């Protein structure tokens, strides 16, 4: 198994709460990004106290109530499956805060972590404020929901986005990277990809590689897998007949997304028919 590929594991945490993924210090090469996926039965409660990290709780499916500090956000979540392709609700939670998530239905929640540098207001990131964005042409097309983009001054470190790529298309393509602290040309951002496929027996291909090939892993990524991107280019290819969903979490020393395309493949952007 590739060292960057993480398979889902259903580890019970408490009654009605299961940890599906738990990428954290001690089991990851990532310094800035942490990531978890939890499943909550209806009525079940997950609670966590943050120390020096901020968190974005993304309601992937189902409905939940999120309490952060003295604020309570009820009936969050907009879909029964991510492939309804509508934006969902999320909550930004600042560092040094205790928060609580209760499932109003069976619920899946992604917890996205990064260094918290200041105390900020907890904030609802409402689905109604997200406008789906279309990117790419030809066989390089995808739809994007910007949950926590760098244009939104809400967080210290976190960037969160979800992406749909249709059958036969490539995404994160041409291959790009953001592993150098060299602004304004490129920013240093680690990344995680949480993948789902429709139908669920599908798979996608993802390659993570650096210019010098000191890192070069190609993976067949199945439903509910997570891929870690500590550095390098990281394109995704979707086979015919399947639709890809992934949730990206990025963080680094500066909360700016500035990427650099692989020069060997950037020529596709300059075609006369583009």
From TrEMBL:
InterPro entries: Deoxy-glucuronate_isom_IolB, IolB_Bacilli, KduI/IolB_isomerase, RmlC-like_jellyroll, RmlC_Cupin_sf. Pfam families: KduI. Coiled coil: none annotated. The keyword Ribosomal protein does not apply. It comes from the Bacteria. GO terms for molecular function: 5-deoxy-D-glucuronate isomerase activity. It catalyses: 5-deoxy-D-glucuronate = 5-dehydro-2-deoxy-D-gluconate. It is an enzyme of class 5 (isomerase). Pathway: Polyol metabolism; myo-inositol degradation into acetyl-CoA; acetyl-CoA from myo-inositol: step 4/7. Keywords: Isomerase. Gene3D superfamilies: Jelly Rolls (2.60.120.10). Its EC number is 5.3.1.30. Belongs to the isomerase IolB family. HAMAP family: IolB. PANTHER family: 5-DEOXY-GLUCURONATE ISOMERASE. Involved in the isomerization of 5-deoxy-glucuronate (5DG) to 5-dehydro-2-deoxy-D-gluconate (DKG or 2-deoxy-5-keto-D-gluconate). This is 5-deoxy-glucuronate isomerase. The lineage of its organism: Bacteria, Bacillati, Bacillota, Bacilli, Bacillales.
């Amino acid at each position: 198994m590739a060292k960057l590929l993480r398979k889902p594991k259903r580890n019970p945490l408490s009654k009605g709460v299961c940890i599906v993924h738990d990428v954290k210090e001690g089991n990851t090469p990532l310094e800035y990004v942490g990531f978890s996926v939890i499943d909550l039965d209806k009525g079940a409660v997950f609670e966590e106290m943050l120390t020096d990290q901020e968190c974005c709780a993304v309601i992937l499916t189902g409905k939940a109530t999120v309490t952060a500090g003295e604020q309570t956000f009820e009936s969050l979540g907009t879909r029964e499956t991510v492939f309804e392709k509508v934006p969902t609700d999320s909550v930004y939670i600042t560092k040094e805060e205790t928060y609580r998530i209760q499932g109003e239905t069976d619920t899946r929640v992604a917890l996205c972590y990064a260094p918290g540098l200041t105390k900020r207001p907890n904030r609802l990131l409402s689905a109604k404020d997200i406008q789906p964005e279309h990117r790419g042409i030809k066989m390089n097309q995808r739809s994007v929901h910007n949950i926590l983009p760098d244009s939104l001054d809400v967080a210290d470190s976190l960037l969160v986005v979800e992406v749909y790529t249709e059958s036969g298309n490539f995404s994160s393509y041409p291959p790009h990277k953001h592993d150098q602290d060299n602004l304004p040309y490129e920013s240093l951002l680690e990344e995680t990809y949480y993948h789902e496929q429709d139908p669920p027996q599908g798979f996608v291909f993802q390659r993570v590689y650096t210019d010098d090939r000191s890192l070069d892993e190609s993976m067949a990524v199945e439903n509910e897998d997570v891929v870690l991107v500590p550095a390098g280019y990281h394109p995704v290819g979707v086979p015919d007949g399947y639709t890809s969903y992934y949730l990206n979490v990025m963080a680094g020393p500066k909360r700016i997304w500035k990427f650099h395309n692989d020069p060997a493949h950037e020529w596709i952007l300059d075609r006369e028919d583009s």
